[in-house]
Structures are given as structure tokens and as C-alpha cells.
Amino acid sequence: MTTKHTPGPWMIDSSVATHIIGANRRPVATSGGYSSNAIPDNGRAENEANARLIAAAPTLLAVLDAMLNCPIRPVGDYQYAKAVSARKMAAAAIAQAEKGDA
Fold first, then answer.
1. 19 neighbors 26 (Cβ within 8 angstroms)
2. Rounded CA separation 13/80 (Å)
3. What's the pTM value of the predicted model, to 2 decimals?
4. Is 79:99 a contact under the CB 8 Å cutoff?
């Protein structure tokens, strides 16, 4: 998998819990805007949860890519169909992340 995005791992900036930074300490994204002090407490918790999800994105993408490279061993028709379906969802998610395809 060739990526154009900032390499992972991404992490939450310890000084601002809604800012996501790359391993090189450069900003990657911000969840909920730059002024987290202006956000009500319930919004801040949601923005921090969104930041954690965004920070996990490179790892999630790598896991999906690894999953696509695992062989499927047919155990039964139902299990095989579930594995094929999961692979299709993983491929779609990777396409969305890399190209913006829905």
C-alpha cells in the first residue's frame, strides 16, 4: 500500500486534546475547531473522542490492508460469504481513505 498521507503513528497533542499530530510533531488535523476552550463541556468530550478516532486512522488503514492480504479458508458457505463481504468492506474503506471514493 502506497500512501500520500502523513505517515503514522498519529497521536493526540498532549497540550490540546483536539489536535492530532504526526510522528514528526506536525499538525495533521483538528477536531472541533482550534478554540477548544470555547466549546461547552459536552462538545469537548465529543471532539476529543473524534480526535482519538482520527488519530487511529493510519493504524486502522494498515489493519484493513493486512486483512486483505490474508487468505480466506472456506469453512462453510456462511463463514466464507462473511469473509468475502468483510474483504469488500475493507477494500471500499481503503478506496475511500486513499481516493475519496465512497
1. no
2. 42
3. 0.69
4. no
Residue with cell 497540550: 15
- Given a contact cutoff of 8 angstroms between Cβ atoms, the answer to whether 21 and 39 are in contact is no
The CA angle 38-41-43, to the nearest 5 degrees, is 80
DSSP the chain: ----SPPS--EE-TTSTTEEE-TTS-EEEESS-S-GGGS-HHHHHHHHHHHHHHHTHHHHHHHHHHHHTSPP--SSHHHHHHHHHHHHHHHHHHHHHHH---
Tell me which residue has cell 468483510.
86
Distance, in Å, from the CA atom of 92 to the CA atom of 50, rounded to the nearest integer, reads 21
**pLDDT, tens digit, for every residue of 18-61?**
889 998 888 999 887 545 555 566 677 888 888 888 998 998 88
Query: Euclidean distance between the first and final Cα of the chain, in Å?
Result: 19
